[in-house]
Each structure stands twice: as structure tokens, then as C-alpha cells.
Amino acid sequence: MSARPQATRETARVVPLARLVDMHIGQLDKVVRIEAAAYPFPWSRGNFIDSLAAGYRMQSLFVAGELVGYYIAMKGVDEMHLLNITVAPDQQGYGHARTMLAALTLFARQNDATSLLLEVRPSNLRARRLYEGTGFEVIGVRRGYYPDHGGRREDALVMRRLIEPAAGNSR
User: Fold this and answer.
1) In this structure, is residue 112 part of a structural domain?
2) Of 56, 71, 131, 146, catalytic
3) With 80 as the cut, is the pLDDT of residue 44 above it?
4) Higher pLDDT, 42 or 4
């Protein structure tokens, strides 16, 4: 088994251009495989189908023609709630999650959202570093939110990032 190269500024320059497209049902087999590889308690295919049916913002990230990640977000009154953001394990560390967060932030701004919200496991240090590094801050805790091993539950940290209004929009 070969080690995955560490992402650096040098390797980031050689990663092919990423392309975000609206998710559709034909992508779900690959999405569900990525989800299962990335998480010990993955979303089910039904969760994704329900999100599509609900009209949530769902985008898939393609790099060199290969689906490598996705995000799902729900629009609220004046906020956007990130429900799921996932990058295939072998594609992590190349800035793909940051790319998706930037696209979601732009979409939220264009749709007059004042903040992005999400929940994250306290034990998911990599995701917490990503969120903190992109301007999110902890604003609360949801007790027993996530399933954990042995039938236990893990809390969720609720994080928020404020969004500046779009240029020319004074709200």
C-alpha cells in the first residue's frame, strides 16, 4: 500500500480544475459509496433521495471527470444550514472541501443568507480545523446528536459563520 502524498502548495498546483455541478439521482451510487468510505455512520441512500426531493442545495464536485465530493445545504429564513460535506478519503487534503465551502458561501450570499450553520462532532478534529480556518465559530452544543460506537451518542458542536452581504445589497 502506497502512502498518499501530503498536500502542499506545490501539489495543489497540479490538481486538475474542480467543477461543481448540481447533484442528480444518477450520481447517487457513487455518492453513497463515498459516504460509506468516509464515515462510520454514513447517510443512507434514502437520506440523499429525501434531500433531492426536498429541493435542498446539493452539489457534486468533479476533478478530472471523477466525482470526489459533495455537499448538501438547506436554506432557512436568513441562513444556510450545511447538512453534509464530504470528500472521498483518497482525495482529502487537496482543498476540495474549501472549494465547496467557498461555493456554498457565495450561493448563500447571493440568496441573502446572513450566516452558515453546521454541526460537527467534537472528535472530528480535521473538520473542526477546516471550519475554524474558514471563519466558523462554536455557538452551541447539541447533546447526544450523533450515533457513536456501542450504542452511545456523541454531542455536536454547532458552528456558525457570518456572511457579509453581497455588493450593492444593504439588507
Assistant:
1) yes
2) 131
3) yes
4) 42
